[in-house]
Design goal:
There is one protein chain. The chain is α/β, with parallel strands linked by helices. It has one domain (4-243): Spore Coat Polysaccharide Biosynthesis Protein SpsA, Chain A (Alpha-Beta Complex). Helix content is 43%, strand content 18%. It has nine helices and seven strands. The protein has helices at 16-21, 23-31, 51-61, 74-85, 109-113, 131-148, 164-178, 192-202, 224-243; strands at residues 4-12, 38-44, 65-69, 88-94, 118-123, 159-163, 207-212. Strand 2 (38-44), helix 3 (51-61) and strand 3 form a beta-alpha-beta unit. The radius of gyration is 17 Å and the shape is globular. The mean pLDDT is 87. InterPro entries: Glyco_trans_2-like (IPR001173), Nucleotide-diphossugar_trans (IPR029044). It comes from Candidatus Woesebacteria bacterium RIFCSPLOWO2_01_FULL_44_14. Pfam families: Glycos_transf_2.
Length: 248
């Protein structure tokens, strides 16, 4: 049986507002106009609001969407579960709020055709983000280069795509790190993206970085000191794992 061309994995934790606002309708309207076959896998991270109810209402009226209900493991564990369950030859994970519009995936396809295994979105200029967020990003980028030697401008955009084989290699390895996590409340797992890319480079997978549209969403402000600490701790955890030979 021929596989789908594209799977879109969307993690969800307490996304009732976004679902009601019509973001999934925008994803559907775009994808249904494409000539390739596709699916959207929405992975719920044991939401405490009405996310599951609203998603189920949506998928009853929209073909090629499906819902996975997972234990609460945070965004990292949710993405991993969705990617490993996806059926596409190319697997994209994207944020529910569509801060990077789904149509930006078209920029990725030429990179895959030219031989890349993974393509990651880069938020050029971080349009609309406050100065403190831009400074946080700059500091994180410097630390990331020093600690992990990852040569990318932006590792944290929630818009990344993988050839199926690359996804199985990277997320298959990461699964054991996240499947038994005990999480309370929302968790974005700051080290998730850098660990993913670190493993990919260890496996000599070819990674391309492509500038994508991105719009800062008001109301997503975070404590800069807390977030900087979480990000640094995540990077150090990856470095320690590497020194201990966990990624071999």
């Amino acid at each position: 049986m021929k596989r789908l061309h594209l799977s879109v994995v969307i993690p969800a934790y307490n996304e009732e507002h976004n679902v009601k606002s019509g973001v999934l309708g925008g994803v559907y309207d775009y994808l249904r106009q494409q000539k390739y076959n596709w699916e959207v896998v929405i992975v719920d991270d044991r939401s405490t609001d009405k996310t599951v109810k609203e998603v189920n209402k949506f998928i009853k009226k929209h073909p090629h969407f499906r819902l996975m209900e997972e234990p609460h493991r945070g965004k990292g564990g949710t993405v991993i579960a969705g990617v490993l369950a996806a059926d596409g030859e190319i697997i994209l994970f994207a944020d529910m709020d569509q801060s990077t519009p789904i149509g930006e995936v078209e920029k990725f396809f030429p990179k895959f055709k030219s031989g890349y295994d993974i393509v990651i979105g880069s938020r050029a200029g971080r349009k609309g983000a406050p100065l403190v967020r831009k400074l946080m990003s700059l500091g994180y980028s410097i630390l990331r280069t020093i600690v992990l030697r990852l040569p990318y401008k932006d590792t944290q955009t929630g818009f990344k795509a993988f050839k199926r084989e690359a996804a199985q290699i990277v997320f298959g390895k990461m699964k054991k790190f996240f499947e038994n996590r005990n999480i309370k409340g929302a968790s974005t797992a700051a080290g998730f993206d850098v660990e993913m890319l670190y493993i990919a480079r260890k496996r000599h997978l070819k990674i391309a970085e492509v500038a994508v549209e991105w719009q800062y969403e008001p109301g997503t402000a975070k404590n800069p000191i807390k977030e900087s600490w979480i990000g640094f701790r995540g990077m150090m955890a990856v470095r320690i794992k590497s020194l201990l030979g966990v990624y071999k």
